[in-house]
Amino acid sequence: MHPDRLTTTILSKALHYFSKALYYLKQDPSTSSKQYSRLYQKLMDTSLRLSMLCHSSPSERKEYADQAKEYGEAALINAMRVGDECMVAQIQFHLACASVWKVYLAARRAGVEPRAFPAREEVEVHVVERLGVLQRFGNLEMGWFEEQAEKFLGYLSSPSGTG
Questions:
Q1: Cα–Cα dist 35/40, whole Å
Q2: Which domain of life is it from (predicted)?
Q3: Co-location of 47 and 99 in the same domain
Q4: Do 5 and 59 fall within a single domain?
Q5: Which of the chain's ends, N or C, has fewer CB atoms near its CB within 10 Å?
Q6: pLDDT, tens digit, 9 for 90 and up, residues 115-154
Q7: DSSP 8-class letter at 120
């Protein structure tokens, strides 16, 4: 196996260890909202990747996607507590991408091409808006965010939904 290749086994282990870390952070009253936000972001990213990589069942993919959204919302709440506008904008962008993935999964479960699914346009617009907000921050490497936007939007626009 290529060392850079993520597998569901590696991601499952990461999710387990991030969850353990969250448990221990919650035991420490000195944990800052920023620390919580960063860990919730890792949990969101890991859950979303698991949803995208696991092919065992549609319900498992949906469960990981739902979990990613919940972690993202927790990350957003903690970032808002910190008052870090750039962090908030980045999390909102990631949540928009997670919403795209959830629409893709819903379309597939419904047996509809993602590009013809009713909720598609709304989430596409949201990703583009969030990307625009990120562009206002001069200190971000926008190439990565643009690649992510293109990747996720590709799930909804290509005929096969493979991006």
A1: 9
A2: Eukaryota
A3: no
A4: yes
A5: N
A6: 999 899 999 999 999 999 999 998 899 999 999 999 999 9
A7: H
93 by Cβ neighbours in 10 Å (0-12 / 13-18 / 19+) ranks as buried
Round to whole Å and give the CA distance between 141 and 123. Answer: 23
Asked whether residue 77 falls in the same domain as residue 89, the answer is no
- As a three-state string, the secondary structure of 89-111 is HHHHHHHHHHHHHHHHHHHHHHC
Residues 29 and 64 in one domain: yes
* Per-residue H/E/C for 7-68: CHHHHHHHHHHHHHHHHHHHHCCCCCHHHHHHHHHHHHHHHHHHHHHCCCCHHHHHHHHHHH
Tell me the per-residue pLDDT of 53-80, one tens digit each, with 9 for 90 and over: 987 788 999 999 999 999 999 999 999 9
- Checking phi first, is residue 137 left (phi over 0); if not, alpha (psi -120 to 50) or beta? beta
Encoded tokens for 1: 């196996």
Is 101 within 8 Å of 48 (Cβ atoms)? yes
> In this structure, are residues 97 and 152 in contact, taking their beta carbons and an 8 Å threshold?
yes
- The SS3 call for residue 85 is helix
Alpha carbon distance 160, 108 (integer Å): 10
